[in-house]
């Protein structure tokens, strides 16, 4: 029983890392003469997201705070937030060590910011401010441009906004709980309908999007390699909205190779349990050939449009 509980906890951790990769933000702010970190993970509020966040908060030793608030779009959201250096550099950095790209590098930047904050020489202070400004912005835009912030600390600006330190990215392949967590964020699972020579073709599809940026290229290559390890064909596209999207589609890829994994981890579906259940039901109809009959096709179309 203990081993099963430990396995479930580790799988949930991977799920949480995937969710954070999609929706989490790691940032820092300059307050007076010091840097303050902030980590935020949020989601629209419902009973399933409440269950997820309460469990995550407990897994993190109840560090950070859970809040429920009304967003600018007038939707209730639940957020896990911490601004504690101690919690971030110990609990959160260890728990969220399966991130990629910008997020993986951001935790390293926070660690270096903390180290530099103990030093008083001008170069260390310049690098500290550049590191803070190189992190993603959480909430409102920065009040001061980098040059003005440096000037406020009586420091020169050399015209280069990038910090001197180079950081390494995560090179390990993700696993399916991570993929499922990423799906819980901005991912999509759906059935596409195409008319082909007076017949209907039903195409299941999985989309995993993230903002296009240099630091996330390796992440998408690793996603591609993970699916290749399952003999699943995937491809990456960049759209004109500044997003990079990994696509997996087709009955062979989804029904034959991914559906067994969705079944195994269905208990981690949370607020997308309905989508996963419909996929499994749809896969059952298709595998049994029911969709080839008129009544069966009607039943399948009802599932799709539900």
What does this structure look like?
- The structure is a single chain.
- α3 (85-95) packs antiparallel against α4.
- This protein has eleven helices and eight strands.
- It starts with a helix and ends with a helix.
- It has 306 residues and is an alpha+beta fold.
- The protein has a four-stranded antiparallel sheet. A four-stranded antiparallel sheet has the order 5-6-8-7.
- The longest helix is centred in the N-terminal third of the chain and has 22 residues, at 2-23.
- It has helices at residues 2-23, 47-59, 85-95, 101-116, 122-134, 146-152, 176-185, 217-229, 251-264, 273-288, 294-305; strands at residues 25-31, 34-44, 65-70, 76-82, 188-196, 199-211, 234-238, 243-249.
- It has two domains: 2-152, Endonuclease I-creI (Roll), CATH 3.10.28; 176-305, Endonuclease I-creI, CATH 3.10.28.10.
- The radius of gyration is 22 Å and the shape is elongated.
- This is Homing endonuclease LAGLIDADG domain-containing protein.
- Keywords: Mitochondrion.
- Pfam families: LAGLIDADG_1 (PF00961).
- GO terms for molecular function: endonuclease activity.
- Residues 179-272 form the Homing endonuclease LAGLIDADG domain.
């Amino acid at each position: 029983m203990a081993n099963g509980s430990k396995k479930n906890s580790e799988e949930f951790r991977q799920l949480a890392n995937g969710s954070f990769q999609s929706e989490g933000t790691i940032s820092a702010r300059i307050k007076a003469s010091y840097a303050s970190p902030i980590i935020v993970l949020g989601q629209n509020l419902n009973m399933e997201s409440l269950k997820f966040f309460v469990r995550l908060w407990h897994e993190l030793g109840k560090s950070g705070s859970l809040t429920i608030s009304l967003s600018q779009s007038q939707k209730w959201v639940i957020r896990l937030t911490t601004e504690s250096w101690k919690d971030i550099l110990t609990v959160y950095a260890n728990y969220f060590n399966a991130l990629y790209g910008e997020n993986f590098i951001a935790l390293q930047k926070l660690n270096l910011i903390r180290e530099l904050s103990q030093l008083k020489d001008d170069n260390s202070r310049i690098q500290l401010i550049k590191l803070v400004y190189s992190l993603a912005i959480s909430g409102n835009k920065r009040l001061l441009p980098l040059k003005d912030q440096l000037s406020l600390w009586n420091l020169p600006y050399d015209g280069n906004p990038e910090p001197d330190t180079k950081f390494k990215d995560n090179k390990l392949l993700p696993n399916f709980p991570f993929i499922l967590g990423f799906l819980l964020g901005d991912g999509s699972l759906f059935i596409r309908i195409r008319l082909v020579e007076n017949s209907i073709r039903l195409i299941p599809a999985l989309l995993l999007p993230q903002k296009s940026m240099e630091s996330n290229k390796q992440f998408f290559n690793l996603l591609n390699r993970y699916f290749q390890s399952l003999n699943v064909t995937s491809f990456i596209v960049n759209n004109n909205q500044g997003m990079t999207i990994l696509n997996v589609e087709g009955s062979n890829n989804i029904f034959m190779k991914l559906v067994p994994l969705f079944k195994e981890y269905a208990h981690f579906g949370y607020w997308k349990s309905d989508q996963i259940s419909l996929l499994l039901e749809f896969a059952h109809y298709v595998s049994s050939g029911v969709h080839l009959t008129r009544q069966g096709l009607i039943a399948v179309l009802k599932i799709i449009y539900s």
